[in-house]
Design a protein that fits this description.
single chain, 3-methyladenine DNA Glycosylase II, Chain A, domain 3, TIM Barrel, Rossmann fold, 3 domains, 17% strand, globular
C-alpha cells in the first residue's frame, strides 16, 4: 500500500535543510505521498529508507514510451481506479493493424491514413497513434519488407507482432532504433525476445493466460534486463478482459502486486465485437489498443470517447478569453458574448460560420463553466462582462453599442446594460437557432 505523508515523514532525516527544494521535510513528504517528488532529491536518505520510499512513492504503473520523435507517445503512470478520484493521465494508443501478406499499396494506404488523418474537436486534433504489422506470412523476409514499406513513408510508432525471433530480428533491422513495441514474449520464447528487446532498447509485450503467469513473466523479463513491459491478458471474451484488467489495475494501484504494475495491451481486432472492445479498452484500462482500420464514423467515435475519458474531470476544457472573429467582420458586425467553456465556444462558432454573417465572439472567463452553470455559480456577472469589453477593446472594433448575450444569461441582461452602457439583446438558448435569430433581430 502507498504510504501516507506522515508515514513518509517518519523515514526522512528531518533536517529541514531545503536541499530538496522544499522548505521542510514535511512538505517534501507530502509531495512524495502525492507522487510529485523523487526520493533522490533528498541527499541524506540512507539506502534502506530509499528502498522503502522508492517502492511506495513511484507510480504504481510504469510509464512506457513507444516510438521516437513527434508522434511518439507514452502510456501507463496511472494512479487511480476511477477517473473521478483524480484523473487518468496517458490516453491509450490506438494502433491500426495490417498483415504483412497485404500488398505494398494496401500497407501504404493504411500507413498514410494514420499519418495524415485527424479531426478537430473542441480545439484538439485527434489522431490514431501507429501501425501494427502482423507476421501472418510466417516469413521473416516478407515481414521485414512490410516493415520497410511503412518506414519509408512515415515516422510512426510500430508494433511488431510475431512469434518468430528470426522474423523479429529481420524486422528490427529496419526500425530497431525507433523503439517499436515487440509483441510478444511468452514462457517459451522469453529469452530470445528479451535479448532482442534489450539489444534494440525496445518495449516488450509479455503474454500469458493467467495473472500469475503474467507476474512471473514480468519478473523474468526484468531479471533479463528489460524494464519497459506491457501485458497482454489474452482474454477469450470482453467479459474476461474487464475482469482481468480491473483485477490487475486494483492490484497495481494498491501495490499489492508490484509485478503487475505495467500497462495493458488489447488486440480488439480479434475479439467478437471489435468496436465494443475498443470502447471497453478505452474505459477499462487498456494502454495499447490494436484495431483493424476503422470506418470514418467509428474512428471519430473512438477518438471522441478517448478524449472524453482522458480529460481531467476536475478541469473543464477552456478557451482563452478574448475577442474572436468569425469571417471578416466590419464595424457594424454583431458582437455575441459567451463563456470560455470549449464545447460552448466551438458549438456557437460552428453555427455562426454556417450563417455566413461576419461577427465577433466576446469570450469571457468563467473558468471553463457553461453558461447556465456560470450564471448559477456567480461566475458570469455584469462586472465580468464590463471588464472584458474594456480589456479586449471591443469598443474600438465596432461602431455600435449592442451586445448579444446567451439566452441562459437573460437574468443578467438589465445589470449588464447598466454596468456597460451597451444595449443588451438576449439571444436564443439553443445555439442552433442563432442564424434565424440574427436574420430576424440584428438589423431591427
Amino acid at each position: 500500500m502507498a504510504l501516507k505523508a506522515l508515514d513518509i515523514y517518519k523515514l526522512l532525516p528531518k533536517r529541514n535543510c531545503k536541499e530538496c527544494g522544499d522548505p521542510t521535510c514535511l512538505t517534501f513528504a507530502m509531495k512524495l505521498a502525492g507522487g510529485k517528488a523523487d526520493v533522490e532529491l533528498c541527499p541524506y536518505l540512507d539506502e534502506a529508507a530509499k528502498s522503502v520510499l522508492g517502492a511506495t512513492t513511484r507510480p504504481p504503473i510504469r510509464l512506457v514510451k513507444l516510438g521516437i520523435g513527434e508522434r511518439s507517445f507514452s502510456v501507463g503512470e496511472e494512479f487511480v481506479l476511477y477517473r473521478h478520484e483524480k484523473t487518468f493521465y496517458h490516453p491509450p494508443g490506438i494502433v491500426f493493424k495490417i498483415a504483412d501478406t497485404e500488398s505494398p499499396d494496401r500497407i501504404s494506404t493504411v500507413t498514410l491514413r494514420v499519418r495524415d488523418e485527424f479531426f478537430t474537436r473542441v480545439g484538439a486534433d485527434l489522431r490514431f497513434n501507429g501501425i501494427a504489422i502482423e507476421n501472418a506470412s510466417s516469413s521473416a523476409e516478407i515481414f521485414a519488407r512490410a516493415v520497410e514499406t511503412v518506414e519509408k513513408i512515415a515516422d510512426l510508432p510500430l508494433v511488431l507482432i510475431t512469434a518468430d525471433p528470426a522474423a523479429l530480428a529481420a524486422a528490427l533491422v529496419h526500425c530497431g532504433t525507433y523503439r517499436p513495441l515487440i509483441h510478444a514474449a511468452t514462457s517459451e520464447n522469453r529469452k530470445e525476445f528479451c535479448a532482442l528487446a534489450k539489444q534494440h532498447g525496445c518495449p516488450l509485450v509479455v503474454r500469458a493466460k493467467t495473472i500469475d503467469g503474467l507476474a512471473q513473466l514480468t519478473r523474468d523479463c526484468t531479471a533479463d534486463g528489460v524494464q519497459d513491459l506491457i501485458m497482454d491478458l489474452l482474454p477469450e471474451s470482453l467479459q474476461a478482459f474487464i475482469v482481468r484488467s480491473t483485477t490487475i489495475r486494483q492490484l497495481a494501484i494498491t501495490r499489492l502486486a508490484p509485478d503487475l504494475g505495467y500497462p495493458v495491451f488489447l488486440d480488439a481486432s480479434i475479439m467478437d465485437l471489435p468496436d465494443a472492445a475498443i470502447a471497453l479498452g478505452i474505459t477499462k484500462y487498456a494502454s495499447i489498443i490494436i484495431s483493424s482500420p476503422l470506418s470514418p464514423a467509428v474512428a471519430e467515435a473512438a477518438l471522441t470517447l478517448r478524449q472524453n475519458i482522458y480529460t481531467d474531470p476536475q478541469k473543464p476544457i477552456q478557451m482563452n478569453p478574448g475577442l474572436y472573429r468569425v469571417g471578416n467582420p466590419g464595424k457594424d458586425a454583431p458582437v455575441l458574448m459567451t463563456v470560455n467553456f470549449s464545447l460552448t465556444f466551438f458549438t456557437l462558432q460552428g453555427y455562426l460560420e454556417s450563417t455566413r454573417l461576419p461577427c465577433f465572439m466576446l469570450i469571457v472567463d468563467t473558468e471553463g463553466l457553461s453558461v447556465l452553470t456560470a450564471v448559477a455559480a456567480g461566475k458570469l456577472s455584469e462586472m465580468l462582462v464590463k471588464d472584458s469589453i474594456k480589456k479586449f477593446a471591443v469598443e474600438e472594433e465596432v461602431s455600435h453599442r449592442k451586445l448579444i448575450i446567451p439566452g441562459y444569461a437573460s437574468p443578467l441582461s438589465g445589470r449588464i446594460e447598466e454596468a456597460t452602457g451597451w444595449k443588451v439583446m438576449v439571444g436564443p438558448r439553443d445555439a442552433a437557432e442563432i442564424g434565424e435569430y440574427l436574420h430576424e433581430e440584428w438589423k431591427r
